[in-house]
Amino acid sequence: MNDAILEMRNISKSFPGVQALDGVEFSVRRAEIHCLVGENGAGKSTLMKILSGVHPYGSYEGAIIYEGQEVRFQTIADSEKAGIAIIYQELAQFPELSVYENIFVGHPIAKDGVINWNETINRAQQLLKRVRLDVNPSMPIKHLGVGKRQLIEIAKALSKDVRLLILDEPTAALNDDDSEHLLDLLRELKQQGVTSILISHRLREVVQIADTITVLRDGKTICTLDNGERQVTERDIIRHMVGREIENIYPPRSKAASEETVLDIRDWTVIDPQTGRQILTNINLHVNKGEIVGLAGLMGAGRTELSLSVFGNTPKYKLVSGQISLAGQPIDARHPGDAIAKGLAYVTEDRKRNGLILGQNIRFNLTIAALHKLVDGAVINENKETVEAGELKENMNIRAPSIWQYVRNLSGGNQQKTSVAKWLYAQPRMLILDEPTRGIDVGAKFEIYTLMNRLVEEGMSILMISSELLEVLGMSDRIYVMSEGTITGELPASEASEQKIMALATRTLEDSP
Amino acid sequence: MTDSAEKKNAMTAGTISLRGLVRENVRTYAMYLVLAVLFIVFGIATKGLFLSPRNITDLINQTGYVAVLAIGMTCILIIQHIDLSVGYVAGFLGAVSATLMNRGWSLLAVLPTILVLGVLIGMYQGFLVSRVKVPAFVTTLAGQFIFRGLLLLVTAASGTIIVRDKSFRALANGFIPSIARMGGDGAHLLTLLIGLAGIVLVIVTQIRARRNRRKYLIRDISPAAFAVKLVFLTSLVALITWVLASYQGLPWTAVVIGIVLFGYNFILNKTPLGRNIYAIGGNKEAAELSGIRVERVTFIVFASMSMLAALAGIMFTSRLASATPAAGTGFELDAIASSYIGGVAVSGGVGKVTNTIIGALVIMSLTNGMNLLGVDISFQYIVKGVIFVLAVAFDVISRSK
After folding, report:
1. Is residue A21 a contact partner of residue A46, using CB atoms and an 8 Å limit?
2. Closest residue of chain B to A360, computed from CA coordinates
3. For A205, phi and psi rounded to 5 degrees?
4. Does residue B393 sit at the A interface (CB-CB below 8 Å)?
5. Is B283 on the interface with A (CB under 8 A)?
6. Domains by residue range for chain A, with CATH
7. pLDDT tens, residue by residue, A107-143
8. For residue range A11-68, what is the model confidence (pLDDT) as tens digits?
9. Between chains, do B216 and A369 touch, taking CB under 8 Å as contact?
10. Which residue of B has its CA nearest to A420?
11. Does A346 touch chain B (CB under 8 A)?
12. Which residues in chain B have Cβ-Cβ distances shorter than 8 Å to A337?
C-alpha cells in the first residue's frame, strides 16, 4: 500500500493494571477521512496519543510509519513538526485571548523575537476564511460558542501546515448545524489533500462522512471497513463494536407510570445575579412517580440552569418567583445539601468537571453524597462502607479490578456509571440526569438505559436532559421542550417526533403565545 | 498509619506481598528514608551527640510548635488554601499568654482563653475566605501584617516578656512525672510503662484491623509483610521509649503533639467532616453538588488552623520562657514545608497528618543538626529552602507518573 500516509503496526501499550492496546494495526490512506470508532476504553484515544507523541516513543511497542518512514515522536512538538495535528474533545484554548492570538499561540509570526501583529491578523483572516468562519479576529473567544471554537482549533492546525488532522469527538458538544458545517469543512480539506482521522460516537455521521472505518474493541483492531460507496450501516458498526447484535438500543419498559406527581415546579423564574439577565422564565413542569420525562432543547436553552437552580445552587441563580414541591412537600433548597435531604439527586452533565472526585477511589466517590448512611455515632463505619460500595459496584457493573481503583483511571462509561451509582446510594425519590450518555459507548449506553427502566419500575422518577433527540424519543414517557429559558411545549411520547421537537426547540420567546 | 495506604492497594481477593507494599508506598517510604539518612549523617558528623537521649529530647521539644502548626496547615493545604498568618498569630497570642500569666492568671485559665482567641481569629479569616471569597493568600497576608502589629503592640511596653511561672515553662520544657527510677538513677519508669502500653496498643489495633479486613474479605497484606510491619512498628516504639526513658522521660511536648495528632488523624480519616475536607480538596464543584457545605467546612478548617496557631504560640513562648517581639517570624514557612515534605499534594486533595509529623521532624532535624554543627544561619536557610523545593519537585514528578 504505497498510498498510505500512515501505518501503525502492531502497536501495544499498557498502563499499570490495564492492557490498553494489544497489537493494533491501523492504516490510513492519503487524503481520506478515516473514522476510528469503538466503545469507551477500546483504546482510540490512547492510539491517537501515541501517534501525536503524548505517549513518547519507548513507552509503547510497535512501529509507526508516516510518509514512508518510521517515526519516533518524543513530544507533541515532534509530531506537529511532521504535520500531524490533534484536536481534543476538551479544547485547550485561552478564553480571554482573541481569535488570532489563539490561532497563533505557540508559533507566533515573529522576527528577532518581536511579534508582527499586523501579519498575524492578516494570516488569521485568511485562515478564518478557509474554515468559513465569519468572526472578527480580534474578538476574545470566550464570546464564541463551542462550534466556532472548534473551527478556530482547525484554523490553528491549518496555520501549522497540517497534513494529518486528528479530531477526537469534535461534534460531541455541537448542535446539528454546527456539526454539519464541521463535516463539510472536513470534506473540503480532503479535496485540498488533508487527511483526517475522526474519532466519533455519532455513528450516523460516521457512515455519512467516512471513506474508511476502523473499529477497535478492547485494545484490538476488530476490522477496517471500506465505506467508499457509503455501503456501511450503523448496524454493521455497532455489531463490530460490541461484538453482538443490539436488537433495540432503547429497551422496553414493562410498567406504566402512575398519576401521582412527585416533582412539581411552578412559575419558576430565575435571574443571573451577576448580570441581572433573566435565565429562566415562568417554568411549569411536573414529573410523576415511575415516569421518565425528557427535557429536550438546544444547547443554551436553559435546561442545565433549570436543574441547578432547582437543586439549590443558589449563588449562581437568583430566584425571582416560583416554588417546587417534592412528593407534596415544598422544598426551599438553599444548598444542594437541602435538596438531597429532601430526596432529589442531580447527575451532572460533565462528570469530570463537577461530578466526580477523580483523585479518589471508587468507594470514596460512591458514598460521598450519603455519608450519613454510614455514620455510627460520629464515625464512618468503613467496613460497612466497603461492603456496600462493593455491592453497588457489582450491581452497576462498574468494570474495574476493585473499589480501590482511582476513578481517574476508569473509562468514560465506567466513570458515568460511578457518577450515577453515587446518587443511587443516596436513594433519591427523584433523579435528574443531565446528558446521561454523553461521550460514552453503545454498550454502556444500553446499560444506562436498562438501569433507568429498572429504577422507574421500582418507583423512582427521572427527569432526563438530553441533546440526542433519538434518546429523548426512545426513553421518555413525556417530553418537555425548552428554548431560550422557557418551556415551549409538552408532548406525550406517542405524539412526539424529531420534527416536532426541533420546531419547538427553535421557537423563540416572541413566537410563543 | 499505613492503614489506608494498604487499603488503597487492597482488592477483594489474594494478599499483597512485602515487595508490593513497598512499591505502592514509595512516596511515604522515601520520606522515612530521608529522615533516617538525616539521623545517620548528623549522628556521624556530631560524633553521636545528635543521637544522644538529651538531644533527641531537645529535638522533640523544638519540633512541638512546628508540628502543631503543620497539622493545621495540612488541612488548609488539602482544601487548596493557604494560611500565611499562622506565624504572627502564634507570636501575638504567645505574647498575650505571657502577659496574662504575669498578671497572675493560672495556666488552666490561660490555656482555654488563648485557644478561644485563636478560634476567633480563625473565624474572622475563615469568614473572609469562605463567605466574602477574598483569596486566602490575600486574607492571611493581611493577617500577617495585622498580627505582627498586634504582637509589637503587646510587647511595646516591656520588650521581651519573661514568664517565671513554672507550670507554664514546663509545658514545652518539662517531662511527665516519674513514679520511680529503675535502679535508683536509671530509666524513667512511667515513660517505660507508657511505651509498653504503646507497644501493646500497636499490636492489638493492628491485629484487630487485620481481623476486620478478613471478616469483610478485603484484600490484605501477606502474613510475612504483616509480621515485618509489626516488628518494625513495635521496635520503633520500643527504641523511642528507651531513648526518652534513659534521659528525663517523656516530654510534655510529645504528649501535646500526640493528642493533637490523634485528634486530627481521627477527624480526617474516620468522620464525615474529614471525608468532606478531602472531597473539597479533590474537586470543589463536585463536592458542592454532592451536598457538602463547602463554605462551612472551609470556615471550620480556618478556625481550627488559628486555634492550633494559638497552641503553637503558647508552646513556643513556654519553650523560651518568654515572648519576644520577633516571635513567630517564618513559622508559616516551616509549617508549609513540613506539610509538603510530608506528602500533601501541591494540587490539594491528598495528604495525611501522620506523615506531616515526619515532615516536621525532617525540617527540625535539619535545624537542630546544623545548629549542633555550628552551621551559619544563612546557610541553614539555604539548605532548608533547597530541601523544601526538592521535596515538592519529587512529589510533583512522582504524582505525574
Report:
1. yes
2. B282
3. -65, -45
4. no
5. yes
6. 4-242 (3.40.50.300), 248-343+428-513 (3.40.50.300), 356-426 (no CATH)
7. 888 888 898 898 999 999 999 988 888 888 888 888 7
8. 999 876 567 899 999 999 999 999 998 876 678 888 999 999 989 998 999 999 999 8
9. no
10. B290
11. yes
12. 291-293
Given the C-alpha cell 478564553, which residue does it identify? A95
What are the strands, taking DSSP E only, across A248-304?
A: 261-271, 278-288, 292-297
Q: DSSP labels for B334-381?
A: HHHHHHHHTT--TTSS---HHHHHHHHHHHHHHHHHHHHTT--HHHHH
Cα distances (Å, whole numbers) of residue B308 to A303, B73, B112: 46, 9, 12
Q: Determine the residue of chain B that is closest to A341 in CA distance.
A: B291
**According to DSSP H, which parts of A312-411 are helical?**
336-341, 362-367, 382-395
Residue where the block lists cell 516591656:
B158
Shortest distance between the Cα of A342 and any Cα of chain B, in A, equals: 11
Q: For residue B276, which residues of chain A lie inside 8 Å, CB to CB?
A: 371
Confirm if A199 and A45 have CB atoms less than 8 A apart.
Answer: yes
Could you tell me which chain A residue has the CA closest to the CA of B295? A335
Of the candidates A63, A57, A80, A68, the residue with the CA atom closest to the CA atom of residue A26: A63
Contact between A360 and B287 using a beta-carbon 8 Å cutoff:
no
What is the rounded average pLDDT for all residues in chain A? 87
Identify the band that residue B66 occupies on the pLDDT scale cut at 50, 70 and 90.
Answer: very high
User: Cell for B269?
Assistant: 480519616
| Cβ pair B257, B357 in contact under 8 A | yes
Distance (Å) from the alpha carbon of B267 to chain A's nearest alpha carbon = 9
| Residue whose entry in the numeric block shows the C-alpha cell 455491592 | A391
Shortest alpha-carbon distance between residue B215 and chain A (Å): 9
Q: Cα dihedral sign for A423, A429, A434, A440?
A: positive
Confidence category of residue B319, pLDDT binned at 50, 70, 90: very high
- Considering only CB atoms, B291 lies closest to which of A356, A358, A369, namely A369
Query: B292 CB near a chain A CB, below 8 Å?
Result: yes
Asked whether A100 and A156 are in contact (CB, 8 A), the reply is no
**Is A317 in the B-facing interface, judged by CB distances under 8 Å?**
no
A372 and B CB contact within 8 Å: yes
CA-atom Rg of chain B in angstroms: 21
Nearest CA in chain A to B131: A315
Question: Burial level of A245, CB count in 10 A (0-12/13-18/19+)?
Answer: exposed
The 3-state secondary structure of B188-248, one letter per residue: EHHHHHHHHHHHHHHHHHHHHHHHHHHHCCCCEECHHHHHHHHHHHHHHHHHHHHHHHCCC
- CB of A427 less than 8 A from some CB of B: no
Cell of B47: 560524633
